[in-house]
Amino acid sequence: MKRKEFIKRSAFTLGATQLPLFGQSNEGKENASDETPSPWLEAEDLDDYKKLVSDLVSKSIELKLQGNWSPGKVLAHCAQSIEFSINGYPEMKSSLFRGSVGKIAFSVFAFKNKMNHGLEEPIPGAEDISNATEIKVGAKRLLQAIDLFSKTAESSLRPHFAYGELTKEEYDLAHTLHIKNHMERLLN
After folding, report:
1. What is the pLDDT of residues 109-121, one digit of tens each?
2. pLDDT digits (tens, 9 = 90+) for 158-176
3. If you average pLDDT over residues 55-84, what whole number do you get?
4. CA neighbor of 139 nearest in space, from 87, 61, 69, 67
5. Is 145 within the bounds of a domain?
6. Range of 174's domain?
7. Structural domain includes residue 165
8. Using an 8 Å Cβ cutoff, are 176 and 43 in contact?
9. Of the four, 69, 141, 178, 185, which is 20 to 30 A from 118 by CA?
10. Please, what is the end-to-end C-alpha distance for the chain in angstroms?
């Protein structure tokens, strides 16, 4: 059984998909009429994003996003989340939240294969990332974070600040959906 099918089936089993916890975001809907979907929105895992970010660096591909955060900051923010899954998040929601609302939220996102979150909200307690972060700097940081994550043993991963304990497979999905949610703001 494929990883995502397993996660989706697990979420369905929990019945979490019936909870109206999260509204549909209209962010990034401007590209909905495009004939060819962006590969940034079609990526299925961190390996796919590693290839896209590598191309971004090596081919000097331009990346334009809606909103106030620069593309460099967005990429560094996504890297920061991956780094925290390895080193530990600076602030955690309560264990009660992580074991209930957080688990349900992740299950819903996994089932829908789509995340909705505040796209210009820093990770709680995280060091601020400058909006002047150059795109290549953010991209290289994201590549390093993905590489480190791929080499990290599942037993070494730290709990997510909101979702709690995740397997490596679940974390890969969480990080993939996180990046994808930010890439919904693509302009090109």
Report:
1. 999 999 999 899 9
2. 999 999 999 999 999 999 9
3. 93
4. 61
5. yes
6. 3-12+39-121+135-183
7. yes
8. yes
9. 141
10. 35
- 31 burial type by CB count under 10 A (0-12 exposed, 13-18 middle, 19+ buried): middle
Task: Say if 126 falls within a structural domain.
Answer: no
- Classify residue 64: in a domain, yes or no: yes
Q: What is the pLDDT of residues 22-42, one digit of tens each?
A: 334 444 444 445 467 889 999
Total number of domains constituting the chain:
1
* Whole-number pLDDT of residue 4: 52
pLDDT at residue 69 tops 60? yes
